[in-house]
Amino acid sequence: FPVGSAIVKTFAFGQGGERRLIETRVLLHRAEGWLALPYVWNEQQTDARLALAGARMPVTTPAGETISYRVPNKNQCKTCHSKDGAVIPIGPKARNLSGEWLSDMERAGMLAAMPASHDTLPDWDAAEGEVEALARGYLDVNCAHCHQPGGAASNSGLDLRWEQDDPHALGIGKPPVAAGRGAGGLRVSIAPGDPDASILAYRMQSAEPGIAMPELGRETVDHDGVAVVRRWISEMPRQ
Q: What is the C-alpha to C-alpha distance for residues 71 and 216, in angstroms, rounded to an integer?
């Protein structure tokens, strides 16, 4: 994205007249790099104000669960949006966008360059699809921005990017580097054929601070995502 670009994402709960705007996250591309800024919407739903310190607010999810929703502070934005110490976008990758979107953005001058070729991630919650591809796509979107070389969790030794093909780097049979109680007493990140013995599944299905992964950006458990990853692990041949 050229200098001057702004990437904006607004988070809301509810539908129609019950829809409530919660926060808007902005990434600005300046000459010196990307700047991450969080904004919180007022009760009147008329304006969003810069909230560098973040915020906490009670929210009722569509499932009827009441949670303490966390708007990240400016430094927490950097935790996920960081690569080798620099702030970067993590969502709008070529593999996450349709070819039509990419072409439209190029024609509009919104891209400095177009990739010569790129993979396309599968729709992870599709009714049909190869389970490995569905799980790997889910992990790429939700975990790989930290769990990759140069990412905030690079010291874990896990690399959950879509293009990674080394089983050990993906966590298969890999002992944790320093997970502490987050490992739940389990011995490897992924135990083929046994999701209950896999740290990856254990941390995904927990909402407890210090155990839950991702550790930022969620307050509940994504049961559908957990089910996809558990099925992937279950179908691996046991070692």
A: 10
